[in-house]
Amino acid sequence: MAATTKMKWLDYAIFGSSVFLVFCLIFNSFIVLPRFVTWLGHWHPLILHFPIVLLLLSIFLGLTAKQIPKPLMATATFTALITAISGFFLGVEAGAKGDLLFWHQWLGGGTALLAALWYWLDGQQLQHKMYTKVLQVVLLIVIGLTGHYGGMVTHGEDFLAFPSDGIENDIPDNPLIYKDVVAKIIDQRCIKCHNSNKKKGELLMTSVTDLLKGGESGAVIIPGNAEESELIARLHLPDADEKHMPPEGEKNLTASEIQILERWIALGASDTLQLSHLDNSEPLVALIDALKQPKKAQKWKDLPPITDEQIAQLSSDYVTIKRIANAINALSVNMYMPPEYTPEMVQGLQPLAENIVTLDVSGLPLGSLEMNTIASFKNLEWLEVDRTPITDKETDTLKALSKLSTLKIYDTNIGDKSLLTFKQAKNLKQIYLWKTAVSPAALEKFKLEKPSVLVHKGIEPEIQALFAKKDSISKN
After folding, report:
1. 162-166, 168-172, 361-365: which range is least confident on average?
2. Which of 9, 219, 347, 405 is found 20 to 30 A from 127 (Cα to Cα)?
3. Is 363 left (phi over 0), alpha (psi -120 to 50) or beta?
4. How far apart, in whole angstroms, are the C-alpha atoms of residue 385 and residue 331?
5. Cα–Cα distance between 42 and 311 in angstroms, integer?
6. How much is the pTM?
7. pLDDT for 133
8. What are the start-end ranges of the E strands in 263-416?
9. Is the pLDDT of residue 386 over 90?
10. Closest C-alpha to 139, from 121, 122, 123, 117
11. Ramachandran angles phi, psi of 323, nearest 5°
12. CB 74 within 8 Å of CB 18
C-alpha cells in the first residue's frame, strides 16, 4: 500500500513537472527568475548524466522486449524532467541565446517530455505496441542530438571535428590579420567559453565589435595599448590564478599566439589591417610567417643553402637580412636610406639572388643599375619599391620576375606603359598604385584584362598611420 502511494505521488510529480516544463519552454522569453532559482540551474551539469543512463537502460529493456521495472521508468522520467528544468534555469542566466543553446534547450525539453509520454503509455499497459517501440527509437535519437548540441555549447561547435594541423594551412599569402590569424587563434582557444551560447563573464569574442565592447568587468582590449589590455594581462597570469585565461583544464595559448594578439592590439586592433600593410620589420610579419613555416618549408625546399655567416657578412646598419623562418633558406631583405647612398648597396645583394623572396627598398633613390640587379632575384615574390624615382623605363626590367605576386609601387613616377609590363606577370596577385601617373582609363582596362589582380588605389586612414610611422621612425 505504501509503495502504491509513493508511485501515485511520483505520477503527480511527473505530471506537474511536465506541465511546468512546457510552460517554461513556451514563455521562455517572458520569464525572469530570482537569483536563487537561477543558481539551481548550476546543478544541471551535475545531474544530467543520471537520467541519461536510466533512460538508455529503459530503452534497451523495452526494445529487447524485457520487462521495465516501474520504479526505473518513474525515476528516469522524473530526473529527466528535473534535468531539463534546471537546464532552463541555467539558460535564463545566460541571457541572449545562440542557436546551439536554443536547440539544446528544446531537444533537452523534448527528451524529458517524450520520456513522460512513454511513462504514461507504459502506465496504460501499452508498452508492447508498435508506436511505443517507435517512440523509444525516437527518444534514443533525441537523446543523442541533445548530447551533441550540449557538447557544442560546452566545448565549441567543432569539438567532434577531426584534429587539424593548426591554423597555418588556412592562412593566405596576404591575410587580413584579424580574420585570417587573430580570429582563428581566438576560435581555437577562447570561443568555447565566449560565444552566444556560453557567454562567460558576459564577454563575447566572436567579432572585433564584441571584443571592443568587453564584458562584465569592462573593456578587455585597448586598441594601441596591449600592455594595459585586460585580455593580455589575463593570458600572462599564472595558471593557478582563477583569473587566468584560458581557465584550468583548457590548453594555454602558445607564446607566439600571445605575441600575435599583443602586436595586433598594439597596431590598433583593426579588422581591416592586412599583412601587406605592414613593414617587413614589423614583428607581426615574422610571427605570421612562423605560423606558415611548415607550408613554406615545402615551398622553398629547393632553394640553395645559405649560412648564417653569409647573411651576417652582407648585413649592416642599413641592410637587414633575415630568414623567413628558422632553418629555411628563403630570405627577407629590408634596406634603409644611409647617410650616403650608392647603387652598390643594392648590387651587393647579388650573392643572395636566388634566396631573396621578399625585398623592401622603398624610399631609396633607385635607378637602372639597382633595378637590373633586382630583376636577377628570380625567386622574388614580394617587392616594395614605393616612394622611389623609378619610371616606366625601370619597371620594364620586372618582366624577368616570374614569381612576383605582390608589388608595392605607389607614390612613384610610373605611367600607363608600366601596366603593359604588369600584365605579363603571370603570378601577380596584388599591386599598390596610388599616387602614380597611371591614368584611370588605362587602369580600368588593366583591371578588365587582369581580373585576378587586386589593385589597391588608395589607403584607409588607420592604415595610413602605419605607413607614416615607417617614415618617421628609424628602422634599425
Report:
1. 162-166
2. 9
3. left
4. 17
5. 60
6. 0.50
7. 85
8. 319-323, 331-335, 356-360, 382-384, 406-408
9. yes
10. 117
11. -70, 145
12. no
pLDDT, tens only, 264-296: 998 898 888 888 888 766 778 878 877 776 666
Q: Other C-beta atoms within 10 Å of 40: how many?
A: 15
- Pair 324, 306: CB distance under 8 Å: no
C-alpha of 91 from chain center: 26
What is the pLDDT, as a whole number, of residue 98? 63
Residue 281 burial by CB count (10 A; 0-12/13-18/19+): exposed, middle or buried? middle
First-to-last C-alpha distance (Å) of the chain: 91
The H or E element containing residue 17 is helix 2-26
3-state secondary structure of 241: coil
Mean pLDDT score, 13-35: 82
Q: What whole-number distance in Å separates Cα of residue 466 and Cα of residue 473?
A: 11
User: How much is the pLDDT for 157?
Assistant: 58
Amino acid at 452: S
- CB-based burial label for 308 (10 Å; 0-12, 13-18, 19+): exposed
For the record, the C-alpha cell of 401 comes out as 620576375
Strand pairing partners for 198? 195
List the grid coordinates of 429: 596577385
Count of CA atoms in the C-beta half-sphere (13 A) of 153: 24
CA distance 434 to 286: 26
Structure-derived torsion over alpha carbons of residues 274, 280, 283, 287, reported in degrees to the nearest 10: 70
Q: In what order do the strands lie in the sheet with 382-384?
A: 319-323, 331-335, 356-360, 382-384, 406-408, 430-432, 454-456
Least confident among 147-151, 246-250, 295-299:
295-299
* 149 against 359, higher pLDDT: 359
Grid coordinates belonging to 239:
595558471
pLDDT above 60: residue 163: no
pLDDT beyond 90 at 328 = no
* DSSP-derived pairing of the beta strands 356-360 and 331-335: parallel
Q: Are 300 and 330 in contact (CB under 8 A)?
A: yes
In this predicted structure, the answer to whether residue 24 has a pLDDT above a threshold of 80 is yes
Tell me the pLDDT tens digit for each residue of 148-161.
777 766 665 555 55
Which residues sit opposite 456 in a β-bridge? 432
User: For residue 475, what pLDDT band results from cuts at 50, 70 and 90?
Assistant: very low
Helix (H, G, I), strand (E, B) or coil at 163: coil
Q: Cell match 505521488: residue?
A: 9
